[in-house]
Structures are given as C-alpha cells and as structure tokens.
Amino acid sequence: MTATTPERSPHIALWWEDLALGEVRALGSVTPTAEEMVAFASQFDPQPFHLDPDAARDSVFGGLCASGWHTCALAMRLMVTNFLSQTSSLGSPGLESLKWLKPVFPGDTLRLQHSIVEKRPMAKRPDVGLVRAVWEMFNQHDQKVLHMEGYGMFRRRTPGTEPVSGM
Amino acid sequence: MTATTPERSPHIALWWEDLALGEVRALGSVTPTAEEMVAFASQFDPQPFHLDPDAARDSVFGGLCASGWHTCALAMRLMVTNFLSQTSSLGSPGLESLKWLKPVFPGDTLRLQHSIVEKRPMAKRPDVGLVRAVWEMFNQHDQKVLHMEGYGMFRRRTPGTEPVSGM
A52, B85 in Cβ contact below 8 A? Predict the structure, then answer.
C-alpha cells in the first residue's frame, strides 16, 4: 500500500481529514450518445429497449435509453476524474442504495453531485477513515435520474489514536 | 408497451406468475481477462489499481483487479442472457444493497446465482408484479465477490384484481 503513502503520492490533495461533513461538490457532466448506449448494452445489457429504437418505442420507457449500469459507470467516470483521483481514496465496500429514477435518453446531459453525509474513523484501521456520500445525477431538465448512497474508504494523513467501534 | 403483450411476445417463457418464492437459479459464468478489465476501467473507472499492474501490486488489492462496476455489468450480462431475456421483465427501480466483497482478478471465473426472496403484486399496476431477488457472484474458489439485492418488475400473464398497498 506504499503507493498512497504521503511521500509517494504527490497527487493527493485531499485526505480523509480534508473531507468535511455537509460538503456538496459538482463533479461535472457527461452527454452519452445513442451509439455509446447501444455499444454498452450490446456488451453488458442486451435488452431490446437499450439496443433497438423501434422496440424501445413500444416499451415501458418510450424510447431507446441507457442501461442503468451504463449510467452508474458514467457517474463513476466523473467521480474518478473530478474527485477520487485527487484524493487518498482506497475504494468502496459497496452501496446501501442505488435508484434508477428516470430513463436516460441519447443526448441527455447528466451532471453529478456528490454530498458528504457522514464521516468517521474506521474501527479496524487507524490509518483509514470512512465517508458516507450521496451521489445524485440530474438531467438537463433537473430531473434526478440516479441516486446512490454508500461508504468510501480514504487514507488518513495522520493515523488516529481514538478508540472506535463498529466497521 | 405492446412489445411485451402475450400475443406479440412468443419469446416470453416466464411471467410473474411463473417466478416462485425460494427459487434459486444458476445463471452461468464468465471469465474476464486483464485486457477487458483495463478496457472497461479506461473508459469508466481509471483508477491505478484497475489500469496498471505495477501500481496495483502496491495497492490495497495486491494486483490488477476489475472495477466494481465492471463486475456488476458482467453479472447483468449473465442475468439478461440466461434469465431476463426469457421473461416478461420490465426493468428494475434499483437495488437496496450492493456489496463488493472481494477483488476480481484477471482469469477469475465468476458464476452468478439468482435467488427469489420475495414476490408480490404491484400496488399501482395490476398488470405488473414485483420480485425481490438476491444476486450473488462467486469466484472459482467459491468466495463471494459480489452481493446485490433489489426488486424487479415483471408483467403478469393475467392482470390481478386483488387490492394491494405499498409500492
């Protein structure tokens, strides 16, 4: 794990200590095309409404739309490029909520918002802290299309000495 | 939504009525390569431990591993090919749990298991039923690497007339 120790990580601008409860970050936007949606779905989610405009028109969605997993992957790309790559992130154990609230159509512009809703030391590792965040993606009509919530692990600049319980 | 009405859907073998509480299905397996992991991560999750074997060796994961979103997408592909494509599936509102339990390394063989843990009519739509399922992916060492749980919506062969409350 030496790759993320201070002396070898000049790119780390934000450690666990620097992430503040209540902070809300705008993490950029992305505008997926129909071709990108079909390419993703062909590989990972080949359902008719993600592949074929004619079949999609007759579906519950009313038109060709992105695989929900494609939307998640696009959110992750914005997270990495505009946030995680500047931090001491060590990954995530998972999500406690993932909601696909609206279909994403070709040409929709999706912006990602990241809000820190909880922050605490990690019980088992004094060199790591946890941050619970809400990720929300909104389209150009300000409709929320994606809601995710879960913990991320971040290395601490200074390992803690406080006793903590739980995860 | 005519695409999934009975008369126009000869491919539908399984309607909501046919999905039984407690059923466990083996939905095939997949063996992602390092090249596929790097290709996915380059597009959607460009963190060093998903892109660069040298950086990955020094990371918390100990070696190049798949983006968690890649693992989810691979599970979805098995779901669609080996299950959803034969059903009256209408999509999913999301997941209530998503856990990345172990890293997935190049050449790991991942098998997907799908278990139906709840089944009920949908309050607002008598033509649709809900199924709550657990998706579990195990590697060749029978270690669980991915756990997901959430609802899917399936069209009913025969719309219901029972009064239901809730979602």
Answer: no
Name the nearest CA neighbour of A163 among A123, A125, A131, A129.
A123
Spatial separation of the C-alpha atoms in residues B65 and B57, rounded to whole Å: 10
Neighboring chain A residues of B77 at a CB cutoff of 8 Å: 43-46
pTM of the predicted model as reported, rounded to 2 decimal places: 0.92
A112 burial (CB, 10 Å; 0-12 / 13-18 / 19+) is buried
First to last CA, chain A: 20
Residue B91 has phi, psi (to 5 degrees) of 100, -170
Residue type present at position A32: P
Residue of B7, B35, B51, B76 best to disrupt the A interface, most CBs of A under 10 A: B76
Confidence category of residue A83, pLDDT binned at 50, 70, 90? very high
Nearest to A159 by CA among A6, A10, A3: A6
Task: Give ∠ CA A102-A105-A107 in degrees, rounded to 5.
Answer: 130
- Write the ipTM: 0.92
What torsion do the CA atoms of B66, A66, B154, A60 make, to the nearest 10 degrees? 180
As a whole number of angstroms, the distance between CA A128 and CA A124 comes to 9
Model confidence pLDDT, tens digit, residues A143-156: 999 999 999 999 99
Residue of A37, A44, A70, A81 best to disrupt the B interface, most CBs of B under 10 A: A44
Q: Are B145 and B138 in contact (CB under 8 A)?
A: yes
Q: How many helices (H) and strands (E) does chain B have?
A: 4, 5
In tens, the pLDDT along B119-131 reads: 999 988 999 999 9
What's the angle, vertex CA B9, arms to CA B154 and CA A100, rounded to 5? 35
